[in-house]
Amino acid sequence: MRDDDLYDLDSSCAELCHMYTYNYLARKWSPHRITKITKRRIFVLTEGGWKCSFDRAKVEANGYARSGKGTSTRRFYSEAGKAAEQAKWAHTRAEIQRMSIELGDDSDLLGLGAEFTRDDVMRAFREKVHEHHPDKGGDPEMFRRLVKARDMALASSR
Q: Would you tell me the crossing angle of helices 79-103 and 140-157 to the nearest 10 degrees?
């Protein structure tokens, strides 16, 4: 390797000094120190002491790189990739909140608690539908609200 292929990192280049992984169980970002950057590779020392290297072009293009195979795959995000991922999550949270506001008081129609499964949703929906189905003399608007509440509950249980 030629000397001009290697870029030394100093403490002033904070945007290039770390890559991040997200721990879903702890719900936090873990920084990992970039030890060396060449024209083609980025070398990272993880918190656990593992050494990884990634294709620099892929990291710069995608904002992340994958390490491992199968179920043990981890994504290492660059600073820009971390920011993009956080923005995507914020958008998803905002969309869920918007949908729940649209639903309004219909969320309590099925009588579900805070934690429920797909089976709980369907069981509660079937019980309520017997009372409010238009073919059995029920109110068509109430039936539509029940269907909407079921769809929203199923979407949030996934």
A: 160
Where are the chain's structural domains?
3-83, 97-157
CATH topology of domain 97-157: Helix Hairpins (1.10.287)
The tokens describing 67, both together, are: 């390490």
Distance CA 21, CA 26 (A): 12
Nearest to 124 by CA among 146, 96, 104, 155: 146
Q: Apex CA 21: angle with CA 16 and CA 24, to 5°?
A: 155
* Spatial distance between the Cα atoms of 110 and 103, rounded to a whole number of angstroms: 12
What confidence tens digit (pLDDT) does each residue in 56-70 have?
998 889 888 888 777
- CA dist., res. 70 & res. 76, Å (int): 15
Is the pTM for the entire model greater than 0.70? no
